[in-house]
């Protein structure tokens, strides 16, 4: 017999599905709708979200839902960490571990745009920075919801 999921567990499960779907959707809209080509590190940020989506779907169809949700949150957090590294490269806080910079030949040889120049910013925050904020914030929110001590069927926030 499976136990009924609490309201916070259900919210965590929906967030685990929505966050990577929306962030990947935004990445593809910016790429194909606005012509902002991804660099190699941009692609590396997408891969954990690709992994998070099926994990989140599993949380809806296969027990244990909380485990699949937590694993999806872990994948989302990994994308956020890659986003932090990428944003640091764009802001020139540290060197790029991949070497795909505007001064290097690697980016051109790999047919990628340079990783150390943001394609777009809003209030000084690049797309990599936004991915880091939304992914890490979302993963933490999911884990907090999974740890909430609410009763099944009741909101953790009531």
Textual characterization of the structure:
The chain is mainly α and 158 residues long. The chain has one domain. The chain has helices spanning 7-33, 40-61, 65-90, 106-109, 127-147; strands spanning 121-122, 125-126. A hairpin with a 2-residue loop joins β1 (121-122) and β2 (125-126). α1 packs antiparallel against α5. It starts with 6 loop residues before the first helix and ends in an 11-residue tail after the last helix. The model has no long low-confidence stretch (mean pLDDT 87).
Task: Jot down its keywords.
158 residues; mainly alpha; two-stranded antiparallel sheet; 2 strands; elongated
Structural class per helix/strand content? mainly alpha
Instruction: Give helix and strand order, one letter per element, not per position.
Output: HHHHEEH
> Going across the major beta sheet, what is the strand order?
1-2
Number of separate strands: 2
How far is the N terminus from the C terminus?
27 Å
Radius of gyration, in Å, reads 18 Å
- pLDDT averaged residue by residue: 87
Number of domains: 1
**Shape field:** elongated
Work out the helix count: 5
Blueprint (SSEs and pairs):
Blueprint (H helix, E strand, L loop, with lengths): L6 H27 L6 H22 L3 H26 L15 H4 L11 E2 L2 E2 H21 L11
Antiparallel strand pairs: 1-2
Helix pairs in contact: 1-2, 1-3, 1-5, 2-3, 3-5
Short description:
With 158 residues, the chain is mainly alpha-helical. The protein has helices spanning 7-33, 40-61, 65-90, 106-109, 127-147; strands at 121-122, 125-126.
């Amino acid at each position: 017999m499976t136990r009924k999921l609490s309201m916070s567990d259900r919210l965590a499960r929906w967030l685990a599905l929505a966050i990577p779907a929306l962030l990947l959707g935004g990445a593809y809209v910016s790429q194909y709708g606005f012509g902002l080509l991804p660099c190699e590190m941009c692609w590396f940020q997408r891969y954990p979200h690709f992994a998070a989506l099926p994990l989140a779907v599993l949380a809806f169809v296969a027990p244990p839902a909380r485990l699949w949700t937590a694993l999806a949150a872990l994948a989302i957090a990994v994308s956020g960490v890659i986003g932090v590294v990428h944003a640091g490269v764009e802001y020139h806080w540290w060197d790029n571990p991949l070497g795909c910079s505007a001064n290097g030949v690697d980016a051109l040889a790999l047919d990628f745009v340079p990783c150390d120049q943001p394609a777009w910013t809003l209030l000084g925050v690049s797309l990599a920075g936004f991915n880091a904020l939304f992914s890490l914030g979302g993963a933490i929110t999911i884990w907090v919801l999974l740890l909430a001590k609410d009763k099944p069927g009741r909101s953790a926030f009531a």
